[in-house]
Amino acid sequence: MFDLKGFGDQLLAGTMVTIELALASLVVGLCLAILAATARLSDNWFARNIALAYTSVIRGIPELLTVLIIYFGSATAIMAVARLFGYDEYIEISPFVAGVIALGLTFGAYASEVFRGAIIAIPKGQREAGLTIGMSPLKIFWRITLPQVWRLALPGLGNLFLVLLKDTALISVVGLHDLMRKTTEAVSYSKEPFLFYSAAAFIYLALTILTMVFIHFMEKRNSRWGDK
Amino acid sequence: MDFNVIIQYFPRLLEGAMTTLELVVVSGLIGSLLALPLGLARHSHRPWLYALPYAYIFFFRGTPLLVQIFLVYYGLAQFEFVRESALWPYLREPYWCAIIAFSLNTAAYTAEILRGALGNVPRGEIEAAKTIGMRRVMLYRRIMLPRAFGMIMPAYGNEVILMLKSSALASTITLLDLTGTARTIIARTYTPIEIFLAAGFIYLMLSLIIIQFFRFLEKRSNRHLVSTR
């Protein structure tokens, strides 16, 4: 499709890794966000404060630092646990896994606030109605709250996904062969940094535009029923 | 956990934190100076006036900051005329490259915030100003901008926090900011958890200070809205 002095294929391969990383982190992040949001709204003091600490700490430290802590820290932590069981070998986690955890944690922390706002916005009467007809709290969450939360949370989540997409570039720092890393490799062979970093910038821009189109489509589809 | 390492290297981490703060303050100031004309032009309805700022803002908000930093630090050096220009002594320094990239980046985000605020100035106030015969320039200087500044404070505070966090990327071009310092210490001691957590703690404290500072600014710029104490 585009040649770029023979590095076009490499850049495309990197782009695929970037997309995979972003989607995997999105899934992990959404699960964490729903968990954290329900914990923030629960009656359990302990759950509430754990979730609060999680969201405030992650939102207060740089994403790059989160990535570094997960990548270098979790290997050390796993090795310490493994040593308890008598396993002394050197353990390393892959940059991809570290990236999914770090970006998922970051996305989850911000998205939990979006979900919390959306859950609060759902009238209390619906919950009570569910209870009255004998639904269990889990069923109420699944059948009544969650389907409506999607619609309210979608614009906020869309913005966060755009941020996540750009943050994937950070994982190249710990050695994942994503678009950013492939670009840096191309630069070191070709000695044409401006050309390749501009190319990378435009690929990221294209991904951003694609995402925006998709979000727009989803929002339209989502508001085909409901108020307005 | 080895707390001695943290205590031993804490002063050096604080030195790194000073560099981080310097980066944020300098590029924040340059960025907001750039954002003012950008935001005003973006607010306009004339295509020839808003098209360029629109493209600028879209590019800087749609690409990763890391790419932008590398474009400035590595990319510019590709051109002969840049290396021969009078600016080269600055453009080859990682410090100034980081400042340039951060300033351009935050200018885009701030301009977008400013545009939003300008669009939200109540219609009645603008009409009132026009009715008493204010010219365009005076309308902006006396009504639109002061009102917009009051409105953007919370959003701008968030932007500064985001900038504080993005400033960690300066460490990727060998700058010894807080993250960069932490990474060099770890290269020597190999205690990633302790030192990174200490650095994270300092970042948290810095963002708390910034939040407080902007709460204060917000109160100050909106003091006319408080009628009774």
Automatic annotation (TrEMBL), chain A:
<protein>
    <submittedName>
        <fullName>ABC transporter permease</fullName>
    </submittedName>
</protein>
<keyword id="KW-1133">Transmembrane helix</keyword>
<keyword id="KW-0812">Transmembrane</keyword>
<dbReference type="InterPro" id="IPR000515">
    <property type="entry name" value="MetI-like"/>
</dbReference>
<dbReference type="GO" id="GO:0022857">
    <property type="term" value="F:transmembrane transporter activity"/>
</dbReference>
<feature type="transmembrane region" description="Helical">
    <location>
        <begin position="60"/>
        <end position="81"/>
    </location>
</feature>
<feature type="transmembrane region" description="Helical">
    <location>
        <begin position="152"/>
        <end position="174"/>
    </location>
</feature>
<dbReference type="GO" id="GO:0043190">
    <property type="term" value="C:ATP-binding cassette (ABC) transporter complex"/>
</dbReference>
<comment type="similarity">
    <text>Belongs to the binding-protein-dependent transport system permease family. HisMQ subfamily.</text>
</comment>
<feature type="transmembrane region" description="Helical">
    <location>
        <begin position="194"/>
        <end position="218"/>
    </location>
</feature>
<feature type="transmembrane region" description="Helical">
    <location>
        <begin position="12"/>
        <end position="39"/>
    </location>
</feature>
<keyword id="KW-0029">Amino-acid transport</keyword>
<dbReference type="InterPro" id="IPR051613">
    <property type="entry name" value="ABC_transp_permease_HisMQ"/>
</dbReference>
<dbReference type="InterPro" id="IPR010065">
    <property type="entry name" value="AA_ABC_transptr_permease_3TM"/>
</dbReference>
<keyword id="KW-0472">Membrane</keyword>
<feature type="transmembrane region" description="Helical">
    <location>
        <begin position="93"/>
        <end position="111"/>
    </location>
</feature>
<dbReference type="GO" id="GO:0006865">
    <property type="term" value="P:amino acid transport"/>
</dbReference>
<feature type="domain" description="ABC transmembrane type-1">
    <location>
        <begin position="15"/>
        <end position="215"/>
    </location>
</feature>
<keyword id="KW-1003">Cell membrane</keyword>
<dbReference type="Pfam" id="PF00528">
    <property type="entry name" value="BPD_transp_1"/>
</dbReference>
<keyword id="KW-0813">Transport</keyword>
<dbReference type="InterPro" id="IPR035906">
    <property type="entry name" value="MetI-like_sf"/>
</dbReference>
TrEMBL record, chain B:
<dbReference type="GO" id="GO:0022857">
    <property type="term" value="F:transmembrane transporter activity"/>
</dbReference>
<feature type="transmembrane region" description="Helical">
    <location>
        <begin position="195"/>
        <end position="217"/>
    </location>
</feature>
<keyword id="KW-1003">Cell membrane</keyword>
<dbReference type="InterPro" id="IPR035906">
    <property type="entry name" value="MetI-like_sf"/>
</dbReference>
<protein>
    <recommendedName>
        <fullName>Arginine ABC transporter permease protein ArtM</fullName>
    </recommendedName>
</protein>
<keyword id="KW-0813">Transport</keyword>
<feature type="domain" description="ABC transmembrane type-1">
    <location>
        <begin position="17"/>
        <end position="214"/>
    </location>
</feature>
<feature type="transmembrane region" description="Helical">
    <location>
        <begin position="139"/>
        <end position="157"/>
    </location>
</feature>
<keyword id="KW-0029">Amino-acid transport</keyword>
<dbReference type="Pfam" id="PF00528">
    <property type="entry name" value="BPD_transp_1"/>
</dbReference>
<dbReference type="InterPro" id="IPR000515">
    <property type="entry name" value="MetI-like"/>
</dbReference>
<dbReference type="InterPro" id="IPR043429">
    <property type="entry name" value="ArtM/GltK/GlnP/TcyL/YhdX-like"/>
</dbReference>
<dbReference type="GO" id="GO:0043190">
    <property type="term" value="C:ATP-binding cassette (ABC) transporter complex"/>
</dbReference>
<dbReference type="GO" id="GO:0006865">
    <property type="term" value="P:amino acid transport"/>
</dbReference>
<feature type="transmembrane region" description="Helical">
    <location>
        <begin position="53"/>
        <end position="75"/>
    </location>
</feature>
<keyword id="KW-0997">Cell inner membrane</keyword>
<keyword id="KW-1133">Transmembrane helix</keyword>
<comment type="similarity">
    <text>Belongs to the binding-protein-dependent transport system permease family. HisMQ subfamily.</text>
</comment>
<keyword id="KW-0472">Membrane</keyword>
<keyword id="KW-0812">Transmembrane</keyword>
<dbReference type="InterPro" id="IPR010065">
    <property type="entry name" value="AA_ABC_transptr_permease_3TM"/>
</dbReference>
<feature type="transmembrane region" description="Helical">
    <location>
        <begin position="20"/>
        <end position="41"/>
    </location>
</feature>
